[in-house]
């Protein structure tokens, strides 16, 4: 019993002497300190947009995990105002890319051009509900969840707007747009390229001056 009392007294003295981190010390922890200890923050801070991919498609079981993370994103009134189409079929990807090349012959001059999705082997197309004014925000949150979950598993990605603009505006692409089977009332908004990275790009600077705390 005496030993127990002594141990408790020592613990109390250490606490009073400031041998445990104070709330002020915790507040002063650097971003690097937090990043090292928090897997979510580490994933967010290390993520990069990937524009060069290895040729193999992402395994569908792995993609399903990514998609499940996507549909668990926050969304207004739980309306889930999105439609998602996943394409890893080379015939589709290469076919629409050939249509794109015919209308944009200069891209064919690039020896590294393989498809219009940054050469990615897997593409997720996202359509939004045009009847709901905040649907585009919901679709953005959906995409971010997918991008971060993919990165945490070693899979790169890149958000793309150009391919979907082409698919919705070019009559020559109508066949491929139809194959996506987007329901009435929805419009193709953007797509995300997914694949195993074949590059390690450096981080681009962010402008912290755009952040302000309002008292």
Automatic annotation (TrEMBL):
The keyword Transmembrane helix does not apply. Keywords: Flavoprotein, FMN, Oxidoreductase. GO terms for molecular function: oxidoreductase activity. Its cofactor is FMN. It comes from the Bacteria. Residues 44-196 form the Nitroreductase domain. It holds the Pfam family Nitroreductase. PANTHER family: NAD(P)H NITROREDUCTASE YDGI-RELATED (PTHR43673), NITROREDUCTASE (PTHR43673:SF2). Belongs to the nitroreductase family. This is Nitroreductase.
């Amino acid at each position: 019993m005496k030993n127990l009392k002594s141990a408790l007294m020592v613990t109390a003295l250490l606490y009073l002497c400031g041998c445990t981190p104070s709330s002020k010390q915790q507040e002063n922890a650097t971003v690097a300190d937090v990043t090292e200890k928090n897997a979510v923050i580490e994933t967010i801070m290390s993520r990069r947009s990937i524009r060069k991919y290895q040729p193999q498609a992402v395994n569908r079981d792995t993609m399903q995990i990514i998609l499940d993370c996507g549909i668990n994103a926050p969304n207004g009134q739980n309306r889930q105002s999105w439609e998602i189409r996943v394409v890893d079929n080379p015939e589709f990807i290469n076919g629409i890319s050939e249509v794109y090349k015919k209308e944009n012959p200069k891209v064919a001059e690039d020896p590294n051009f393989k498809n219009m999705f940054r050469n990615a082997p897997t593409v997720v197309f996202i359509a939004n509900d045009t009847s709901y004014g905040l649907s585009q925000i919901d679709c953005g949150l959906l995409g971010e969840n997918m991008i971060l979950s993919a990165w945490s598993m070693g899979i790169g990605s890149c958000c793309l707007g150009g391919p979907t603009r082409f698919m919705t505006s070019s009559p020559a692409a109508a066949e491929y747009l139809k194959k996506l089977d987007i329901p009435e009332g929805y419009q193709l908004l953007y797509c995300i390229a997914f694949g195993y990275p074949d590059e390690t790009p450096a981080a681009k600077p962010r402008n912290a001056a755009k952040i302000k705390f309002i008292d």
